[in-house]
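2024-03-11 09:14:02 INFO queue: dequeued item Ammonium transporter, len=476
2024-03-11 09:14:02 INFO validating residues
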Amino acid sequence: MSFNATTPWLDTGDNAWQLTAASLVGLQSVPGLVVLYAGQVKKKWAINSAFMAVYAFAAVLVVWCIWGYKMSFGTQMLPFVGIPEPILSVDGLLNQSTLPTANLTQNFPMATMVYFQFVFAAITLIIMAGAFLGRMNFLAWMIFVPLWLTFSYTIGAFSLWGGGFLFQMGVIDYSGGYVIHLSSGTAGFVGAWWLGPRLAKDRENFQPNNVLLMLVGAGILWIGWNGFNGGDPYAASADAGVAVLNTNLCTAVSLLTWTILDMIVFKKPSVIGAVQGMITGLVAITPAAGVIAGWGAIVMGVLSGSIPWLSMNYLGKTALFRKVDDCLGVFHTHAVAGTIGGFMTGILATKDGCAAFGITNPGGAIEGNGTQVWLQIVGALFIIGWNIVWTSLIMFGLKLVMPLRMSEEMLLLGDDAVHGEEAYAFFGEGHRSLVHGDWERTPVNGDGELGQIREISSAETSDIREVGPMTSVKTE
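2024-03-11 09:14:37 INFO prediction written
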């Protein structure tokens, strides 16, 4: 018996790096954003927020293999989408990876490309979930994920990466500033409008339940971004190294800029603010990572640490943004930062960077090609417009057949009502707390079944005592 370990077209180094990069991006979602979300929300929403991310990761993979990948990277059906068909045959997955409409070939198998692009699709839905936390009906989310992937994500991916009309025009989106971040930020904002706000009490007091856990997720997100941007040359190339360095440089500058602004205005360095600055830096550099110089990454870091800071702290407090409850500020951290990154790519892209990336492009405005700025604007406008329309259509369609929001009981109780589970078992050995914020659920019989919910008065709240593994209200 003999095995062919390689083929003439296979570059084992490229394949190893691409699988590594894909795994790093996958880790950004599971566990990166899973634990970031779980730590950043109130305790009563920790499980639901984490599980929305886990569900999306799984659901996207199935849809991606059955029809999503070919819609994004297959043979053109329309100028903005490929023909939907499965990519599941063993022979097909073993063959050399090609993007037929874009006329590009990679030195690794199709299976590697399918998985690499899947983790990008998955994280887009997971980022968007950050805008919907604390009130979206989980069943509605289960159906929304495959619908939005099909009618929104695949169109952006094909148009910019798969050989579609924006690709042919010469719009640059190195690794997803538009396809992933601008689309998720726009769709998150629009979807949040359709969902309506969280409970007033939750909006007024939504302190993170575990800042250290949030930092763990943020750290995984940052380091995982080495695969996010470093994998998009589709090779273990010199340009991959440039993309990784620029990514980290921009992110560091953005985090520091955000922190300094917090200290100047709010007189304290905020850990949560630093995480926001980290995220905006990662997002802004994404469309430009391998096509700009190091000094350009620093410039972009200053802008990504300041403009989204202004957007979140000032624009975010206007009447419109108070009405639309974007739970984790996805619009500011992803849509605003993604737009900045895409626009600045049109200014800062270099001839050498574009050549190293493997695209025929004269660079941006600093190279005398001011037209690139307008191309970047056109690309952004298409992604924004498409996502406004299709996110609205999907939300409207779902609203006709099911509630988009959880019931009032679920909104009051959170994870216990939605999933029958709590994030932290602080009461005995895994027993549930019967007190959720200012609400109480009491046993109705000796078997411990839970009865009706009643509001605890302010007088009672001050006189709560523990009885064994359960918490009850003291009565005289």
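2024-03-11 09:14:37 INFO annotate: The longest strand covers residues 104-109.
2024-03-11 09:14:38 INFO item closed
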